[in-house]
Amino acid sequence: MYKIVSRRELCGGIWEYVLRAPLVARAAKPGQFIIIRLHERGERIPLGIVDWDPGQGAVTVVFRERGKTTSQLVREYCPGDVILDVVGPLGNPVEIGRPGRVMCVGEDAWYANLYPLARALWEGGNEVICLVSTPNGSFWMDKFSAVAEVNLIGNPAAALRERLERERPALVWASGSPAMMRACSEICGERNIPIRVFLHPIMLDGTGICGSCRVEVGGEGKFVCLDGPTFDGAKVNWEALEVRLSAYREEERLALVRYFGKETG
Amino acid sequence: MRVPDISVEVAGLALANPLMPAAGPLTSSPKAAERIAATGVGAIVAKTISVAAAEVPHPNIARLPYGLLNCELWSEDPPERWFSEYLPAFKALGRPLIVSLGYKPDEVRELIPKAEPFADAFELSTHYVGTDPRPLYEIAKAAKETTEKPVFIKLSPHVPNIEEFARAAEEGGADGLVAINSLGPGLAIDIRRRKPLLGGEHGYGWLSGPAIKPIALRAVYDVSRTVEIPVIGVGGIASAEDVVEFFMAGASAVQILSAAILEGVKVFSEILKELPNLLSELGVESLRDLVGVVHG
């Protein structure tokens, strides 16, 4: 059982939850994620670990209220409540290194994934520029600006294209929808700039047993949970990823209808 | 022709160039300020310090098609941290440092002595948006009784007669003015959520960026024709052309914030690179020669 320490709505529909999970907080590294399950009959969903405090034994996740599980979390789980399972840290930590100038592009709740990365890059002596966007406002501008230059952009791909006209980073990171990461990967590909992306497919166990998170990278089958969650954006088969992500769209819709007792937007 | 001179002098402060970040998130911490200093700006203006840390609503800044809407307040860090840790680090950046303080006479009397060892000048903000200019006189007077360093007063664009407010600040002893603060309150609505875009009680925000540039230019024009003290122009500046426009309207230096958040802090170094070329093209030897040329 894992207690919810605090929560707040960062901007319209995007939530920050701080969970008490001391072992995860002690071991977490940039790029890693947890899988949570709210209750005995709950779905398992992966969430990036976007901040952590080993002293307080706390880990932070940021997500948009979208499907049944995130809706239930926001509507029924408040500080002091407990969620059944928190498993992690899962996935491979990002190898930070000394790439030099790094541009991080992010959209919506996914841009929180860039924060621990930007912090580690900055601590490693790299220059970090973060281009972030949501359809409604912004969040963590203060946290980001402590470790990176942060720009509040409109369309991520358009902004990346425009920035790459003016300066050339050694590496680009993207965290957003598959369509956004695909567009950014194509833009970097045209300019021969390496790009890394955060993938977030459907996941169940997070240990490579179930195979739900299989993606094709460089023509090879990879498990996002074991081999990822970050990959070379130029090598990802985006079409295959989008097909997999939409495999249960009808079931996801029905789960929401059942939860709310009616059709929702 | 020689390379045009872009150095300026404002209220006794000699600056290598006219650019500075406006008080706000660009200079909310030493790390953030270090990135701005690295672009080559002529001076640093720190984020506004008040007697207690601000509690800021969320979200507090949103991009709109024509600028930024924000309900940021003053610094979220406590003043003690600014005086013991941040301001010494800001000072070490080696640029003229303008410390921004708010918001009432008693508060600036309390804050100025603590910031004095680090500041080359002070910029004072007031929350005041009424019709009586007297509070500007009072805060300028309180500051000048406390420090001998230059004191700038930041003007809001909302007042019925901005010249009277400028004059009140000048009579109170202000050494310069900063025009303008962001415009508002305004409102933007998230139509899918049927709520204001920004947090806070009513979701109000203050507008900055390209949308307010003509209003800022007009304010600089009006104010600089009225008072003897210099004016620092701020509001929607994003290019070397914009800088020249503000100088022609009467500014002696300029501040930039929104463009750096919307387009990147590189905007400072890009303007610094472009400005001498533009002045050459205009046949101008020194930026100072342009101050108020449209006053006629």
The CATH superfamily title of the largest domain in chain A: Nucleotide-binding domain of ferredoxin-NADP reductase (FNR) module
**Helical stretch count of chain A?**
9
Q: Give the full name of the CATH homologous superfamily of chain B.
A: Aldolase class I
Number of domains of chain B: 1
Please identify, by name, the CATH architecture of the largest domain in chain A: 3-Layer(aba) Sandwich
Top-tier CATH class of chain B = Alpha Beta
Query: Please, how many domains of chain A?
Result: 2
Cα radius of gyration of chain B in angstroms: 18 Å
The general outline of chain B is globular
From the spread of the alpha carbons, the general shape of chain A counts as globular
Contiguous runs where pLDDT drops below 50 for at least 5 residues of chain A: none
Largest sheet of chain B: 8 strands, parallel
Strand order of the largest sheet of chain B: 3-16-15-10-9-8-7-4
**SSE order of chain B:** EEEHEEEHEHEHEHEEEEEHEHEHH
Helix content of chain A: 25-40%
Q: Could you explain the architecture of this structure?
A:
The complex is a heterodimer of chains A (265) and B (296). With 265 residues, chain A is an alpha/beta fold. Chain A folds into two domains: 2-90, Beta Barrel (Elongation Factor Tu (Ef-tu), domain 3), CATH 2.40.30; 101-245, 3-Layer(aba) Sandwich (Rossmann fold). Chain A is built from nine helices and 16 strands. Chain A is globular, with a radius of gyration of 18 Å. Chain A starts with a strand and ends in a 5-residue tail after the last helix. The mean pLDDT of chain A is 95. Chain B is α/β, with parallel strands linked by helices and 296 residues long. Chain B has one domain (8-56, 75-185, 212-295): TIM Barrel. Helix content of chain B is 34%, strand content 20%. Chain B has nine helices and 16 strands. In chain B, the strands form four sheets. In chain B, strands 3-16-15-10-9-8-7-4 form an eight-stranded parallel β-sheet. A four-stranded antiparallel β-sheet of chain B has the order 5-6-14-11. Chain B has a two-stranded antiparallel sheet with strand order 1-2. In chain B, strand 15, helix 7 and strand 16 form a beta-alpha-beta unit. Chain B is globular and about 55 Å long.
